[in-house]
Design goal:
The chain is of the alpha/beta class. The chain is built from 13 helices and nine strands. Strands 1, 2, 3, 4, 5, 6, 7, 8 and 9 form a nine-stranded mixed sheet that branches. Helix 1 packs across helix 6.
Length: 354
Amino acid sequence: MVYPFCIWYCMSDEESTEGFMAEKKLISVIVPVYNIKEYLPRCVSSIAAQTYRNLEIILVDDGSTDGTGALCDKLAASDTRIRVFHKENGGSSSARNLGILKARGEYLGFVDSDDYIEEEMYELLLCAVEAYDCLVAQVGRDEIDENGNRLANICEPPTAPVFIGAQDFMRELLLHRGDCSFCTKLVHKSLFQDRGFPEGLLNEDFRLLIQMLPDLKGIVSLPQQCYHVFYRLGSNTRKTSHSQFSRVYGDCVDNADLALSLVRETWPALQREAERFGAFQRLEYLLHIPIEQMETSNEMYRAVCRNVRATVFRNLGNPYLTKKNKIYLLLFAAAPKLTRKFHRFTMKLRGIET
């Protein structure tokens, strides 16, 4: 493989590392920031400590009200590579998009303000994209809870470096095995020309990534888990009460429809995987929606039910859906409210509130 040579070239000794650094390709690391004083210093310190020194850190203060904006300015005073931009609150995607506009680097990285990274992450990623002559590389990630415990992997990293073609990467995403997060990736800035993160939506990384994939040969995936997600209750899509129904479930359904459209246009061989993805996302929607919101006045709910009924027999023959998936889809097609009540009851018996 090319990668082992690349790592030797970049990391084996001082002379090799200096040769790699001499190329001076600038990396812009964009951090959207909002009311995060407690965790921002750890995040910024982990980026500033990167072994690849030729980077800029763009902190986009998204209208913070707790003094985080002033903290950003203080951090910038301690490192000339840190640039700060203040804006009115518009959400994470809005902040990221401003960061993209302000970025000077040839490559872009993204770090969420409560997460942190290993010091070699961007050196490994830049080395990988150059070795494989591609536009995107990714590392693995893990999740750490508020007590410092490491949680189960959401995405399993490869056991060795691998180049995944665009169609195969799309397939992994559709089967819920791929990593859609931009935080684990280094991306050539050209891929953001005339596109950005969708504002006002959740599951935004998935939506943007699948729109980029047709423009890629593929993505290099590295085994090192260099990105650490801090699982903080109440952040982004974390559920804080049993009655809460995050809009992420509806956005995931919409993204599944976009994925199916892209597959039909670009990778028709993935039709069944895309249908499985859409059925799974609708099942997740129905398994989590509060029963009191399952009303005919709820347009999204009605649309999900119509689709489940219209596709139920085709989904029963889908080889990528599990037997349990198919049973629930059949039950929801017949009696959605009753099935939701049954599911909530069975979860309560297991000590889980849904």
